[in-house]
Design brief:
single chain; two-stranded antiparallel sheet; 14 strands; 31% helix; globular
Length: 344
Amino acid sequence: MANTVTIRACPYCGSMDTHPTLLFGGPLPWVNHNDGSYECRNCGKKAVPLSFDTSEDLKAFQRSLTSNIRDESRIFYHIPILPVDTFTLFRLPVIDLPIRQIADVTGAEWRNGRIEPVGQKAKFNHYWRAVSSSRYSAREIALWDLSGIRDGHPNFEVLKKLVRSRYQVWLDLGMRSIQDVFDSFTMDVSRGLIGTLTAPGLELFEEAFELTENAVPIIYHDEKVLWPSRRSGSEKLETVVKELVDIGYEEIGVIDLPRLGKKSGPDNDMVARLERLDAKFILGGGITEADVDGLRSSGMRGVFLDPFTPIIDDLLEERESALSSESFTTFEKSVSNSRPAPVD
């Protein structure tokens, strides 16, 4: 069986010219030792390299870095939501496979006061390759740890492996404290998502804003702004938006929970309310690719796309067909050569 070669590259510039950082010290002060960090000789920054399965994946990542250097006025995010129910992976037996080949992206809907995994499933690596393919070209993904959001039990070991496989990840692990914010950014996420559904109050948004410019507040809405308790914050959308803008946030996410996963398009009344407010909104809940142009024209900063939109479904089906075809071809060649079929 052929050995799998992992390609590693700098998360800042995409260069493969990364090397372990050697320090002086340790048990014997005259001996160099490696503290686990790496230095990129191309950009000079220190970071843990990202891992890629193929050169095509690396090239797609490098293109995303280049595309991020663009006119601010032209930015419009179209970010697919990838919910992962990491609770099912806490008791994962020891398996010699990358976690992204085991973890499932699931459908997600708002049911009985919780975001629940429902409907379709697809392996994380298949789903990511579909949305990052040249036909879809997603530059970012929104990774939702459903266990963290629902129950306050994010699976950090799983998240570290999923996040490190790609750099442009917006992560919602169900932040409830400033420690959760720290934990998110130690995983080299692009943006950390802080939701009203889990934040104990406005103070967490204030602390996160002081800590990093890469935190994005998310307002979860179901006829009112949803918080863990009535004492956590205002239930009026306009009030919460003003409070977040006063803190200093310019980009604010809004998830229209009753429409989440329904692929039914945005609520026009919600769009009209947001158009009247002085902030740059990224709207989610029912959004598919067919809604992107209209929401861009309405002045939105971007959209969070529902899981398993029709276009993503088509891309996943194409990938499954290609994999089946490759497996069949490999089997036929093996039989004709009177050798056992290779195991992937």
